[in-house]
Amino acid sequence: MPPQPPSSTEVVVIGGGVAGVSTAWYLDRLGVPVVLCEKGRIAGEQSSRNWGWIRKQGRDPAELPLIIQSLRFWAEIAAELPEDIGWTVGGVTYLVETDADAARYTAWLEHARAYQLDSRMLSVAETDALIPNLRAPHRGALHTPSDARAEPAKAVPAMARMLQASGVPVFESCAVRTIERAAGRVTGVVTEHGRIGCSTVVLAGGAWSRLMLEQQGFALPQLQVISSVQRTTAAPLIAETTVGSAAVSIRRRADGGYTLAKSGASRAELVPANLRHARPYLPVLQRDWRKLKFRLGKPFLDALLEKAWDGDTESPFERTRVLDPTPDHGLLDQVLASAKAAFPQLADVRSAERWAGAIDVLPDEIPVLGPVPGIDGLLVATGFSGHGFGIGPAAGYVTAQLAAGRTPAVDLGAFSAARFA
Ligand SMILES: Cc1cc2nc3c(=O)[nH]c(=O)nc-3n(C[C@H](O)[C@H](O)[C@H](O)COP(=O)(O)OP(=O)(O)OC[C@H]3O[C@@H](n4cnc5c(N)ncnc54)[C@H](O)[C@@H]3O)c2cc1C
User: Fold this and answer.
1) Which of 191, 234, 398, 399 has CB atoms 3.0–4.6 Å from 408's, for a disulfide?
2) Any residues with Cβ below 6 Å from ligand 1, and which?
């Protein structure tokens, strides 16, 4: 049976990732009628494909108030859900390998102090005590014991199931084709299964938000970068803390294996939008060009051939139900070898599964949260730039507050869409 959306509600949330599901979660708690539409499956894109790190450590200072609140929300959500989502406060640790690391982490600690975080630099001996048998060369580490982890493949789907159980309509395979407006105000959305009238729309479309906003006449300079991940077969516990180093980032999984990846090692799919929006990214490219690969392939041709669509015609959102990029196996082979060299406990593991995710990046690497200039009733929660899983519940909370006409708990000035207008 195809989904049968209701003819009207107060708020329609577009996107069933952590941002959209959290927004619906808190709207429901505020007593606001809400419908969530997901074009593919709940958390089918970034929100199930990420590393599962929920960290304050290393965050942009603008995000610290939100992530502090988000860690509290994750703890509450994990306690409320009837399913285990692997919520563990095991800490986050970044090895200090170079002078540049030491300088960067020491500078970031100033921000941590401003919020009385428990982050601190560890000596070599303290690092070795925290991560026994560590073979990676290091000069100590930056460590935040109160940071956490959870299982991305379980967490957001479990939240969506609980929402549904409490009566919130959550539709999968239900793409929103267009947002309708009259006299500059949102009046509803047209989904592939019919129209839903509403006064507010929250766009939490991850890597697709740019396309929807472009259709509405707002140019968000959001790009996609592809990042590869793998999980291993089960192995002995190395340490409760997740560990980041230049060669490998590693998180203990609830299934006894490890999620392994390499920070910053990404592939940018060159599509016309990337080229159009390249200019604001020049500082990021200058910093990261060694770690980034570029590819011009099928996505470029697809984007060139993309036809305009409206509420009556099939949209790009239906043509790709779930973005499922090909992982970089060469990179993941290297990451596995680096992990085995750094952690002898992994000597016998194999790669059990590999995948990739399309990260929605903005030039200043912090999200957009709030109203879209010139379109009354349209809110966005997007552009989390590779670290939105941790911050997702708090981002959803403040977006729900805005949609309910309340003052958000956190100052959202830094996240305004107007900064790109
Ligand atoms: C490899 C990788 C590792 C990461 N590691 C971490 C980490 O350790 N910690 C961390 O905090 N963050 C991490 N992130 C980032 C984090 O996963 C994302 O920032 C976060 O999941 C974004 O959530 P979202 O809801 O905005 O987007 P998504 O999870 O991408 O969800 C957007 C949803 O919107 C749907 N959609 C789009 N358009 C429409 C439409 N028109 N109609 C209906 N549905 C639509 C899509 O199908 C999609 O399901 C990582 C990301 C990746 C890819």
Assistant:
1) 398
2) 14-20, 37-40, 44-47, 49-53, 175-176, 204-208, 212, 227, 229, 317, 357, 359, 382, 384, 386-390, 392
